[in-house]
Design goal:
By secondary structure, this protein is an alpha/beta fold. Helices cover 39% and strands 13% of the residues. The longest helix has 24 residues. It is globular.
Length: 673
């Protein structure tokens, strides 16, 4: 029986006239948005209605059918708004949830943290981040998942197929409690058009990475990676010493959404100057309220006046420019403003769906154009992208250092008709500007096993989070390398930098050994009663969990970066080794058909059983990626794999390559690289 349909003032959507495609409205601090209206490829509506009505008893179909049809016609999807619980959702303390096992309660914390008004981009549509990345497809699925998690015992596994709860099945204590997949299309149908149609039909979910992976922690989840990227870009391109900060260095980019919103905070922590363009004023207001950006203005002269002031004082600051990044770059070119580091974090994987606002249109005007004339909107986006890359080229010629941030920006430029952005005019061969994985994060972090490890204190206690910080600091030797020195300082100062958004969570770019040591220490704290249960996980953007030639595996050059074997084996291996949650998804960051990504979650309950899982599974999770990178002959991965082999002796072994001599190959096949 469905809940009583509430008064519109409480929680049903606003009047239809307000619900145009892309309009954002404030309600108790949340950003609300409708979805794209139905297009021709999504017709007819009857199969979509039939699929949605499967979630409710037949006696209610006559009542809910017209309601669901109205949602489909006006919003492009069926969300089942009336099934959304009243009020705000958030990741509450573990003890406040109903459940028969700690894992079932922990997964409820993570689920609802992904839908927190401060965390999720469009919580009423279950969109967590990246414009379209959903936790689940609709609120009927949410209700069922909640019920299953409350009934879950420690010998159950809940199976999710693109958000649909297939059922709660008996298994063993050592098996995962949750196995989930999102949008895994059959190859011939893994196209943008077919994926959109499958989503509209309610049979596919675009889970991005940690949205469908239930472990998104807001911009706090990406801020350390952004900090490392910008800091090491300055070291590599500008000659900043390894022990120095970014005083006087200007970083310019765009986007203040779920992932891109970490940029201003990361630059300020690195003591640099950050200018981030954002067309949506509500996102600027949200980041300012959360303390993730220091100054805001729509005046470009004021932007650069603040930049000059900070440069002269060698002071850290972050500036949100309310406007289009193309206008910002044009101003810099015209006024000969020096930009040291430049990138872009708009949602270019969904450039024609509102992820990239074309220059010359205010945000509201762009929304209206997309709703009324998608073809004209596409033309404006393409023209804007062509102008955008032209300005980047001019700035680079003046000494600016640019990189693609793995958001499909260069692919979008290529699709807009700039064929010379690709090597030899072929996007499969890469682009003339390296991505940040190719030039920075790949060799520096992923090849060495460093990646975005994270943990969540399920009690919701800030004091417990500080206790975990102290435990993590004790596991890091700052003298071992520059990365470890940066990591030690990062976690030491994490509380001071006010990084928490949503539940009490922390991010740390740790390597395999550090992840194992930290997790064991945290489990010991749980066992002693010093802290409550802890959920450890990682971003899917890591050394072994994700295959994408456009981002995570872009620095693999043996021809295998188009393969997705690693992500599948990583996911299956984590399931076999007893992780609490194992997730595998199509898409994420660069869009569907361009990436397969996997993630995990593990509940630390203080038991010896979990100690064994930590030692086995966390090590596998990292080394499966390092081993693949070593086989591709990546130098840092080879060094890391050899050290791992030496440490494990006869107990375990990574297959290492015999590297062919380039001179020999050139003598055999001259000029054929």
């Amino acid at each position: 029986k469905p809940p009583r349909r509430p008064r519109r003032r409480r929680r049903s959507p606003p009047r239809r006239g307000l619900w145009q495609r892309g309009v954002r409205l404030r309600r108790r601090g949340a950003m609300l948005r409708t979805r794209q209206p139905p297009q021709q490829a999504w017709q007819p509506c009857a199969p979509t209605l039939r699929n949605a009505l499967r979630y409710v008893p037949a006696a209610l179909h006559a009542t809910l059918g017209p309601e669901f049809l109205d949602e489909l016609r006006t919003r492009g999807r069926i969300y089942g708004y009336r099934y959304r619980p009243r009020g705000a959702l958030r990741g509450r303390p573990l003890h406040e949830y109903n459940g028969r096992c700690v894992e079932g309660k922990a997964l409820q914390v993570m689920l609802e943290n992904n839908l927190d008004f401060d965390v999720a981009l469009y919580p009423y549509e279950l969109v967590t981040y990246g414009e379209t990345g959903q936790v689940l497809q609709n609120w009927m699925q949410y209700r069922l998942v909640k019920r299953y998690l409350e009934r879950m015992e420690d010998t159950h596994t809940l199976v999710l197929l693109s958000g649909h709860p297939l059922g709660l099945f008996r298994t063993t204590r050592a098996a995962p409690r949750l196995v989930s997949t999102n949008g895994l299309m059959v190859g011939a149908y893994d196209t943008a058009a077919d994926f959109k149609r499958a989503c509209a039909l309610g049979v596919a979910n675009y889970g991005q990475m940690t949205a469908g992976g239930l472990c998104y922690i807001g911009p706090a989840g990406i801020v350390h990676g952004t900090y490392i990227t910008v800091l090491n870009a300055a070291r590599k391109f500008l000659g900043v010493p390894p022990d120095a900060d970014l005083a006087g260095v200007l970083y310019v980019s765009s986007g203040l959404g779920g992932m891109s919103g970490a940029q201003p905070k990361a630059v300020e922590i690195a003591r640099g100057i950050g200018v981030i363009a954002e067309v949506d004023e509500s996102r600027i207001a949200q980041r300012a309220r959360q303390g993730w950006v220091s100054r805001t203005t729509s005046d470009l002269a004021q932007v650069f006046a603040w930049v000059h002031e900070a440069r002269e004082a060698r002071a850290a600051t972050s500036i949100a420019y309310h406007g289009n990044v193309v206008d910002l770059l044009a101003y810099a070119v015209e006024h000969d403003e020096r930009i040291d580091l430049l990138s872009d974090q708009t949602s270019c994987h969904a450039a024609y769906e509102g992820g990239y606002t074309p220059v010359g249109l205010a945000h509201a005007d762009a929304v209206a154009l997309l709703a009324t004339d998608a073809a004209a909107y596409r033309e404006r986006v393409d023209a804007s992208l062509r102008r955008h890359i032209g300005l980047v080229d001019q700035l680079v010629a003046k000494g600016t250092h640019f990189w693609d941030y793995g958001n499909s920006f260069l692919k979008a430029v290529f699709d807009a008709g700039v064929s010379d952005i690709a090597v030899g005019g072929d996007a499969r061969r890469g682009f003339r500007y390296a991505s940040y994985v190719e030039s920075l994060m790949g060799p520096l972090c992923f090849d060495r096993g460093y990646g975005p490890f994270r943990w969540v204190c399920l009690s919701g206690s800030a004091d417990e989070l500080r206790a975990t910080d102290a435990a993590a600091v004790a596991c890091i030797d700052p003298a071992r390398s520059s990365l470890d020195r940066d990591n030690h300082a990062w976690i030491r100062d994490a509380d001071k930098n006010r990084l928490v958004v949503g539940t009490q969570a922390r991010i740390l770019y740790a390597d395999g050994g550090q992840r194992v040591r930290i997790a064991l220490r945290l489990n010991e704290l749980v066992r002693s009663g010093a802290v409550g249960p802890i959920f450890v996980a990682r971003d899917h953007h890591d050394t072994g969990g994700t295959d994408s030639p456009f981002r995570e595996t872009a620095n693999i050059y043996d021809g295998s970066r188009i393969m997705a074997d690693m992500a599948h084996h990583n996911w299956a291996g984590n399931a076999a080794r007893g992780m609490t949650m194992c997730v595998l998804s199509n898409g994420g960051g660069v869009g569907t058909g361009k990436v397969v990504n996997g993630g995990f979650g593990l509940v630390l309950d203080g038991s010896a059983r979990v100690d064994d899982v930590v030692r086995c599974a966390l090590d596998w999770d990292v080394m499966s990626g390092v081993a693949r990178r070593a086989w591709a002959t990546n130098a840092n991965a080879l060094t890391t794999a050899r050290a791992w082999n030496d440490a494990h002796g006869a107990d375990a072994h990574v297959t290492l390559p015999y590297v062919a001599d380039d001179a020999l190959l050139d003598s055999l096949v001259p000029g054929d690289s």
